[in-house]
Amino acid sequence: MVLDNAAAEAAALHSGPGRKKQIDDALSYLREKASLEAVPGAKFTFGPMLASGSQEFPTTEIIPKSVLVFDPSGTRKDDWNERGLKKNGPYDQRTFSPKRLRIAVVCQGKYEGQVDRFVAKFLDGMPETLTGGKHKTARYGDGFLRRFCLEKPSVTFFTSESASAKDYLAASRRALAQATDEGFKWDLALVQVEEEFKSFDDGSNPYYATKSVFLKRDVPVQSVRLETMGQPDTELVFSMNHMSLATYAKLGGVPWLLASQQTVAHELVIGLGSHSVSSSRIGSSQRFVGITTVFSSDGSYLLSDRTAVVPFEGYAEALYETLKKSIMTVRKQDNWRSTDKVRLVFHMFKPPKDTEAEAIKRTVEALDLDNVTFAFVHIAPSHPYLIFDNSQQGIGYRPPKKGVLGPERGLHMKLGDRESLIVFSGASELKQARDGMPRPCLLKLHRLSTFTDMTYLARQAFEFSGHSWRMLAPEAYPITIRYSDLIAQRLAGLSAIEGWDSDAVHFGQIGSTLWFL
C-alpha cells in the first residue's frame, strides 16, 4: 500500500498538470516574495510563461507522418506501418528467401508447454482476439507467416535444464550440432528468457550467452520474456506485432522503405549513440559508442551493411573509417562524380568538438569530392525546455487519462537558426497515465556546420523516428541514434561472454542484418 501510494504521488508529480503546477508555484513565489538582482542594483522580475499567442513565440509546425513504401515500384504506400504491412505485405516479399524457415526454439524444460503455445500464436496469429473501442479488430489476426508471406516453418525445441547460462549454452550447442550433422543452417533462434535475467552480470546472462553462440554461426536470435508470454491475449497481440516486425528485420527482410522527397544532393546520415557499462552500481563505468550508417538512394532510406562499436576513446577513428567506407560504397553504387553535390548529416549523442568536426571534413576532402556540405546535429534529450498543450485534455475513455497537457507527436518548434525542439514521441504514444508527460528533444546544430537548413534537418530527424523496424510504434529518438545505442549495448554485453568474437558481426553475414534489434 505504501509503495502504491508513493508511485501514485510520483506519477501525479510528473504528469502534465503536476509539472505545470510546480512551475506556476515557483514563479508565484519568485514574483511575490523574492527580490531578484542580476547584479547589485539591477533588479529583474519574471513575466508570464511564453504562450502561442505571444509575438515572441517561436515558429511552430506539426510535421506530417512519413509515407512508407511497400513495393519496389513505389505504388503501394501508407502512412501507417501496421496497416500497410497487412494490406500489402513487406517491401521485399517477392525476393525474400528462404520462404520456409528452420527455427530452433531454446527454452527451459519446465516451460516448454507454455513456449509451444506461444510459438503457435506467434506464427499463425490470434484471429479470435479482438481489441479496440466500438470497432474491434484482430490486431494480430494474420500472424507472422501470413503477414510476411512465408510458408509453414520447421520448428525444433531444445530445452535447458535450468535458468543458468551454462545450461542455455548447452541447449544452444545441441541445436547447432544437429544442424551440422544434418547439413543445414538454422534461419532463426527463438529464445525464452526471463525479466530476472536483466539483473544478471552480462557474463552470466543466459540471453547474451545464447546470443553469442548463434551469432557466431550467423543465426539471428529473437528473445521473448516468459512474462510476455503470460500476458492476457488482449495485451499479447500488441507484443506480437512488435516482435514479428523485429524478427523479420533480423532475418534480413525489408518490411518497408521510407519515401522521401527527391533531392539533387547525394546524402548520407551517420548516427552515433552510446551505452555505458558498469561492473557494479558504485563502480566506474565504461562507455561504448555504436555507429550506424543510413544513406539515401533514389529517394529511399536504407541501412548500411555494417555496424561498428568501440570504446568511447576510440570512436573518432572508427567514425572516420566508417565514413570512408560508406562514401566509397555509395559512390560506386550510385556512380557519383567528383563534382556531384554531397550532403553529410551527423546525428550525435554528444555535442561534437571543433577538432572532431574539422577532422571529419579533412577525411572527406581526402576522397576527392569537390562539393560537400556538413551538418553536425546534437540530439539532446536533456535540456531545460518543457512544452505544454493546454488543449490536450488527456487520452483514454476514463480517468486517469494519459498525456494530459502533453504535446503532440511531430510538433516542431524552431528556437533559432541553430536550435529546434521536436516531439518524437507525444501524448498518444504514452503507454499509460503513470508515464508522465512527453518531453521534446532539443536539436542543436554545431557552429562549423556548412549545411544550416534547420527546418530540413528537423523534419528529416522526425522521419527517422518513424522508420524503426524494432517496433510498430514510433521511437522516442531517430533510429540513427536509437539503433546506435542498441548496437553499443548489445556488443558491450556480448563482450563479457567468454569466447565471444566481435568479428562475427563485423565481418560475418549476420552483420548485414539488424541482429541487434
Describe what you observe in this structure.
This protein has 517 residues and is an alpha+beta fold. Among the domains are: 97-250, Rossmann fold; 265-385 and 440-510, Nucleotidyltransferase, domain 5 (2-Layer Sandwich), CATH 3.30.420.10. The chain is 33% helix and 21% strand. The chain has helices spanning 2-14, 16-32, 81-88, 112-124, 143-147, 165-182, 206-215, 226-229, 233-250, 315-334, 354-365, 454-465, 479-494, 503-506; strands spanning 37-39, 42-43, 59-62, 67-69, 77-78, 102-108, 154-160, 188-193, 221-225, 257-259, 266-278, 285-297, 300-303, 308-311, 341-348, 371-380, 411-414, 419-422, 441-445. Strands 3, 4, 5, 10, 11, 12, 13, 14, 15, 16, 17, 18 and 19 form a 13-stranded mixed β-sheet that branches. Helix 11 (354-365) links the parallel strand 15 and strand 16 (371-380). Helix 6 runs parallel beside helix 7 (206-215) and helix 10 (315-334) runs parallel beside helix 11. The relative contact order is 0.12.
